[in-house]
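Minutes, methods subgroup
Present: GH (chair), OT, SY

1. OT presented the first of two proteins processed in the latest run. Sequence and structure tokens recorded below as shown on screen.
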Amino acid sequence: MSQGVYPSTPPAQTFTMEARDMQKLITSVSAALLAALLLAGCSLKPIKQDQRVVLGKNQGLAAIAFDLPDSIRQVYIQPTDGHCKTIEISSIAKGKSIYLFVVPAGKYCLEQFHTLFFIYNNHGDYQACFKIPAGKLGYSVEMSPAAMYSGMMMNQNFDVAEFHTLLRSKYPKIAAQFLPAK
């Protein structure tokens, strides 16, 4: 039996970094962290409790409804006027649901969501859009995005009576504040 030949271990290499390179690295890392913090600060989270909503100047209440055949996740709804307040919903179960957000008044469009197999990105066609008026409730219409074959299909149902029923069942105090009396 012959003995194997093993390569010698290479000598340890030293890593040196010049002061200016270290400064560039720190600047790059700091810029990346700052960008991440700014983006996190730009996203809006849904209202969780059914209680009176206080709107600031030029703010409205966005009611975003879904009727989904399958769950979706990483849903982003962005304003079209360029301000930084993106509506973010981490996941939505299949079926009917509604989410409420206090947002700057303006026009918002469904920008992105993920299904089990697809990622939908709106590339400027602005199909699933809605307006939120200052001081009032704005309704997205009931959105039903679905994966179809090699793409996406977006249905929108504008049934105001059904929306009022859903809002009153999930958020009765907020509905009483923003909807007309029955």
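2. SY then presented the second protein from the same run.
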Amino acid sequence: MGDRNRCLKPGYPRDVFIASPPCGTQPMNPDALEDCLQAAAEQSSAWALIKETDQQAWVLVLSDESLVDLACDESGEHLLLRAELGLVPDVAQRSAINELVLRCTGVIPMPAICLGPDHRYETLTRWPIDLSDARGLATLFEDITEQTRIWRDVVAKPMTHEAAQPAMTAPEATPAYGVFA
């Protein structure tokens, strides 16, 4: 998953994602992980959690019917979550979105936003697996749902490089006060 993405988070290598606050990790038990994921999905607004048949991966169906891919990293210590935001073939629009992402980084809490070689934006998040924290994972699912909705709207709106910059307008003229009749 990491090899085909360029993360736009400055200073992060492409295989590092935003992490939740540290919590105790345990050796991964696939059945226990499945139970934790199912409990988290039930506690969140997600519609469904679908297990991939041939691998340790799942698809989370969000309330707006968008999909989040879930998979364990190679070490088995983190759950990687990826949601597609949309295709942006226009170079000027990609530049404007990239600038907006960089302006937001560190200012507002947000997942890593990456651009694949096929010009599709996606969010990438990493959760340290803690099988005793289904509630924390459910909260993360809610955050991903909101972040995906927000950034999908940003990616879908045509914008230019200038639109990503704050508007610098002249102050409004102060009305002249006179005698009122």
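Chair's summary of item 2: Strands lie at 6-7, 18-19, 48-51, 57-61, 67-72, 78-87, 112-115, 120-128.
Next meeting: continue with the remaining queue.
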